[in-house]
Amino acid sequence: MNDEKADVDKILKELGTSQSGLTEEEAQKRIEQYGYNEMQEKKGKQSHQVSQKILGACSLDAGGHHSNNCLAW
């Protein structure tokens, strides 16, 4: 067995899975234990700070002068 194959086998064993993935039973068990693999949307201060940075960048041009040239997405 080559080193790369041994590394893959070791990692799969550590994660409790195989190259074919988790069984339905194991997947359900992990959902119950850890929850779904989702990002939680954080509201409040963080999104407000991002908005402030975007608006701040839009209000000044490269020379530090106020500008109306701003692209937002």
The number of helices is 3
> What is the count of β-strands?
0
Could you say which structural class the secondary elements and strand pairing correspond to?
A: mainly alpha
What fraction strand? under 5%
Rg over CA atoms? 24 Å
Profile the largest sheet. Answer: none
How widely separated are the two ends? 51 Å
Given the C-alpha coordinates, what overall shape results?
elongated
Binned, the helix content reads: 40-55%
Query: Average pLDDT, to the nearest integer?
Result: 74
Oligomer: single chain
Q: Ranges with pLDDT <50 over ≥5 residues? A: none
Order of helices and strands: HHH
Describe this structure in words.
This protein has a domain at 3-34. It contains three helices and no strands. 53% of the residues lie in helices and 0% in strands. The N and C termini lie far apart (51 Å). It has helices at 3-15, 24-34, 45-59. With 73 residues, the chain is mainly α.
